[in-house]
Amino acid sequence: MRFFRACALAVMAVFAFAHAEAAVRIKDITSVKGVRDNQLVGYGLVVGLQGTGDSLQNAPFTGQSLQAMLDRMGVNVRNVNLRTRNVAAVMVTADLPPFAARGTHIDVTVSSMGDASSLMGGTLLLTTMSGANGQVYAVAQGAVSVTGFATQGQAETLTQGVPTAGHISNGATVEREIASRMPSDGALNLELNNPDFATAVRIADAINRYSWAGYHRRTALEQSPNSVALHRPPGVGATHFIAEIGELMVEPDAPARVVIDSRTGTVVIGLDVQISPVAVTQGTLTVRVTETPQVSQPAPFSHGRTVVTPQTQIQADEGGGWVAVIGGRSLRGLVHGLNRIGAKPPTIIAILQAIKAAGALQADIVVQ
């Protein structure tokens, strides 16, 4: 049996080498149904800040949390007017990976809730983290790592990054395990990260070629553009079978799509985007208004007044206006055609939208 599996891997290696440029592993574009992360959330306090924490008057929940914490430690501050600025109320979030055993350490993100200006140098106190069902699955504690900073003076403020959010590597310890078991009846389902009919068929074909060469049976069937059903061979564990087929190489497919981010001027064009030959004219109109005020001052010993005389100059320039032919059966040809007209990203966005309206752009436009 091992010899047949070795032969199957050799055949798939030859097939993968022929498509090495565009092929990816099945494990990188799919996931096993039911094997997923779970979100955890908690509320806690960060202490040790250098006067950059919450003001207890503007964030009363911080003061209430501080009093409750000190009460549990035997310190009575109920009738004391707290004025500290070294404490901040935060929300603590984390992703609990599948099959995480008790005692496993996971990363957490700490985000300020009040008016704290920075969490730099702070330490998160012991915080319980719960799931959607309200049960506690982890506890978090540790020093908060902040990449941003904020500095201010009397007349200027400098801020870089986000100093009110931080990260604690391995800051939480798993205390309760989530029941995540591989199916034992032989039925498995692979879910595609990017659903596509062609990709699902290619995944099923690649698995069937491997299983036929190694186990003399077909084990995969595409059910939808989002799912591929697997029937593991007898005598092979689910974990072992998933590990084997996860290394198989396939060439994923995707619909032709143009993604536009108008805020940053970013345009991403997919490989299969095609434009039917069209003629495009692109022109720009620049209007320049120049104000040069002049001061008119009266002669000495006169009774006149000093006045400011406005002087305005308006100049209009219209550039471009020539016609270029754009069209391409490949991404390189399309990019070359857009570069020929010398347009900037905002103009390219307008051109692509106009070409789509004319019916010459054979792709979907996604505007973010």
UniProtKB/TrEMBL annotation:
It is found in: Bacterial flagellum basal body. Assembles around the rod to form the L-ring and probably protects the motor/basal body from shearing forces during rotation. It comes from Candidatus Rhodoblastus alkanivorans. Its main location: other. The basal body constitutes a major portion of the flagellar organelle and consists of four rings (L,P,S, and M) mounted on a central rod. Residues 1-20 form the signal peptide. Belongs to the FlgI family. This is Flagellar P-ring protein. Keywords: Bacterial flagellum, Cell projection, Cilium, Flagellum, Periplasm, Signal.
